[in-house]
Amino acid sequence: MTSGGMPRRMGRSEAASGLAMISPTASYAILLLAAPLALIFIYSFLTDGYLEIIRTFTFANYIEAWTNELYRVVMLRSLMVALAVTAATVLLAFPVAYFVSFYVDPSRKSLWLFLITIPFWTSYLIRVFLWKVILGYNGVVNSGLLGLGIISEPLQWINYNVGAVVVTLAHAYAPFAILPIFVALEKIDRSLLEAGQDLGESRFMTFLRVTLPLAMPGVVAAVLIVFIPTIGDFVTPQLVGGPEGRMVANLIQLQYLKLDNYPLGSAIAVSAMMIVTVASLFFLYLNRRYLRGPGS
Amino acid sequence: MRGGWFKVYALVYLVFLYAPIILLPMFAFNDATVIAFPLSGFSTKWFAALVDDPPLHDAVRNSLIIAVTTAILSTTLAVFAARASTRYRFPGKAGLMGLIMLPLVLPEIIVAVSLLSILLMARIELSILTVILGHVLICTPFCIAILSSAFQSLDRSLEEAAYDLGETPFSTFRLIILPLVMPGIISSLLISFTISLDEFIIAFFLAGTEATLPVYIFSQFRFPQAVPVIMALGTILVCLSILLLSIAEFFRRRGLARSGAKDTGGFL
Amino acid sequence: MTVKPTMIEFRDVQKYYGDYHALRGINASIRAGEFFSLLGPSGCGKTTLLRTIAGFEGISSGAVLIDGKDAAQIPANKRPTNMVFQSYAIFPHLTVEENVGFGLRRAGLDKAEMGRRVGDALAMVGLTGFGKRAAHALSGGQRQRVALARALILKPKVLLLDEPLSALDKKMREQMQMELIKLQRQVGITFILVTHDQEEALVMSDRIAVMFEGRIAQLDDPETLYRRPKTRQVADFIGTMNFLPATVLSDTPDGCEVEVAGLGRCRIAADQAPPGGNGEETTVGFRPETLTILYDGQAAAARETPGTVEEVVYYGDMTYYDVKLDGVRAAVRLSMRNVPGRPVLDIGTRARVAWSPDALVLFR
Fold first, then answer.
1. For the whole model, what pTM was predicted?
2. CATH second-level architecture of C240-363?
């Protein structure tokens, strides 16, 4: 190398080195993520012909997806379930994150986090199925309550419905909600809390006026990270939802694998992504308004 | 007691988190076919049934091939991306990184159907290979998250020092950077292996006739008599994941200790 | 003393980071065997300039010559320079020995020779017996020594030190300053030190380049720099300097006649007053220690001005007084050595302040 190695390359073309470095990963993502997403976007405007896709531009798929009662109900249900799961997960997770951040000895924090994350990594399918076992007609809850004589016949409202979907998903995404909130709480300078109390606020008011606003970015991250994947979850509604608990992923799967209607499946998928995006932007907007005072 | 009611709550919460996992071995060693209380008696017959189940063995083999390949490929791709994003400034960085990290927040069903569409359009036959393509896509962001923190905690002057002492950029990478990020690489390999092994929906769409372990498990849920066997299988899988995760966590912490960085918590 | 040959030469060195003009025409030469410092506030370009010598930073135009050769042709890993980094950059996964011997890997030495060289290097920095230790188990001062040994083992012509003492506490820093001076004399090579600590630069250097905003404001030996700063900025950065407004009455080749507010009319020698026009409104500066408070019974000095003590800062060996001289708006600071028989004065005390025109520096 006559021009001299590192200094030249560092000075002249940091941008080029960076692009070269990222190019394998970026090419992969463009080829296998951006292009496929673009493709289903295009598909959603084409017409389904039996066994083939006819290349005529149409809005018919979207009209079908948004006006057909069947699809509309499922999409609305997905949104509601995702919102319920998000609310439940985040509200239940906050005290745990707060406990680990504020009360657990620093040397044991990572042990707690590890314990919280482990269930998340263990066979999702089997975990979901076990909820079916727990909540089912002959499930753990029912047989337990029957055995104790608390109920005389199995409870039916806990299995094969939307409620079971919410419980199962809330369980599955719990660590997702705890970690971002924990990270945000960890970043809070403890002397700010002392300052709050020093300035005459009660513990509770200090929490409301100092801790909570500072933890908000973590809460929003938790909301997004739970909301987005739950709305598209397939396994849980399939296994524990019953016919009344089907969600948008099941619908997409049905169109793609069973009915072979790619354009309509794509339109539903794109619609789902739109719902996710709009909802996410709404959460971010709320957060920004909430933080308008102290934030940037 | 430190934390008082918070601690009680957190412990109850842990019980909620672990409830299914605790039930798993109870039913796996229960000799009844029906999954319900009360338990009827201890038995290892469901584990024995695993031994004589050729479709299961095929699925395990497929899943292992997929998981190992995915772990290697996604970690390799993540090394490039993590290095690029922590070390260089370049135009379009935010956009490219955003795209690469997108699967982290994209519902997997979307990834699955979009990949299926393009593979069918390109007339690529569904196989183990196509599952790998999908799994690499969703594992890479996790690997990047792990490796970025490993690369981030590298003091840039370490590279300069090696270069200053006569090494080439390549030997600097080999002698200094690689050993220092090695714990991160190992934990990235283990995490992506675990994710791939456990992933269902993409495999369900892209595996064609070559079922992976989760796809096989899913198919067995239809047969009530197969469920105890699945419980036994699940018990083994849970133990395996916990083992792998513990190893990953060990290496992650060792990496932090080596570079003297502060522990900021879990993998995510 | 004979002038030593030039080791490093900067010829109109310019450096841009995008639109940011980091180095704005650096011209200087650094001599072989000299302890040279680049001194300035953060962001003045001193570290950038040091890194152009090491080769970690390219330059936009001009030339850097190392031992007469254009450095642009030599990549960083082939330059006869080695660096001690601000963070020390000790390889955390290697032992002390492996760190120190790192640069010898390519020299193709046998094990025994390698061990001997590493041992010598460790002995030189006072770390004999530390070879097998893990790098991360060292204290700040020890890491510093390892970094020194590692850089010196390749026998470079120039050792570059990037704020090497800034991470150490005050005691340790002062001790390391002395050790570095001794080490430099012992190995006899050029040391180039980057620092923002003016005291450190004054203590250690043969010559100092004071930099502001990408330019060298003044390059001189410590004493000249301290006593005859060329600009107010340099004067202000190095030590404490009092400034008073002054009017130039007449300017001749051998000095100039000025009217200084509060002090009156006096003559400043040519080497302390750059040439300029008559009638100019300028500033004169003087160091705190050039003023003396005369105690009752001390004989009158040639020049003295009455004033009132406004502030007293006691330092043990010294006391600093802010004294408002009659007829001057702002107080001037002066320092007095605390010796028996000279009690520390109280605020509000009237005092006679003696001064000398020899200590005045005129700034244009």
1. 0.80
2. Beta Barrel (2.40)
